[in-house]
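Ticket 4471: requesting a sanity check on a complex prediction with calcium ion. Repro inputs:
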Amino acid sequence: MSRTPLIIDCDPGVDDAVALFLAFAAPDVFDLIGITTVAGNVNAELTARNARILRQIAGREDVPVYAGCQRPLVRRPVEADAFHGASGLGDMAVFEPAAPAAAGHAVDFLVQAVMSRPAGSVALAVTGPMTNLAAALALEPRLASHLGQVVAMGGARSEGGNITASAEYNIYADPHAAQVVFEACRDVVVLGLDATHQVRATDDRLAAIAAIPRPAAKAAAELLVFANRVERELVGGTASPLHDPCTIAYLLAPQLFTTRPCRLSVETASPLTLGHTAVEFRLKSPDEANALWVSAVDAQGVFDLLTERLARL
Ligand code: RIB
Ligand code: CA
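Returned structure tokens:
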């Protein structure tokens, strides 16, 4: 079976890290043509360094890392270091990676990598603020129709927000970029908090990953232990939601997810609800839909997939 060319646009980030490990562990499925990083959870210099650290741990320095946008399109930057640690990788021992980032900007890479391949062939997973993708769409508007499957972690409907009462972090961190993306692209599979809050790193699931005697699995377990500690201390929960890995799990096993066509709009004007995602299922015609909202997830299936794949890395 031919492999899917895949780009991951991310802001590692504890859960971005586990998403990258899952993608690194599926070379039989993905031709991982590049990782693009963006300012988000921590600043752009750190997210680029962190992606290089993670690919070194996974032994996948064949995958180029392109550093991207350093700030949102319009609003002031807002980071999430309370949830990801000052380094962006929790309390993992960070280091200067051996292999450098690729030359060139992530936005230029996104345009070149997609437009130089057959229409619809390159899949894109977005696990951070959508600044790079929005800038790429401004640079090359034909990108929207040339991209293959786009899967994004972001937004919330019934779950409310996780950075404000009404907004999820990735959208809140760059709502104008999200607005550009959802107005330009169609059929984006959107994993909002409604989906990712169903996928929790419970102790038994964490133990299964921690038992794998492989560097990436050990790193993933360490990151999830950190995430669970933050969940307890900041949220009052017990098991942290596995946000970003769900994008890669969807591309590997879409049968684990239930989707529903919707019209997704982003609030960009209200100080009170900035970054809110209005997810409308009542469509006058199918053409109105711009996204597929994930409403249900087989959480154990996702963890079984993650555990099985990490054991191979
Ligand atoms: O709201 C969860 C999202 O915000 C995840 O992508 C996490 O990495 C943070 O960026
Ligand atoms: Ca992220």
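Notes from triage: The longest helix spans residues 215-235. Leaving this open until the requester confirms.
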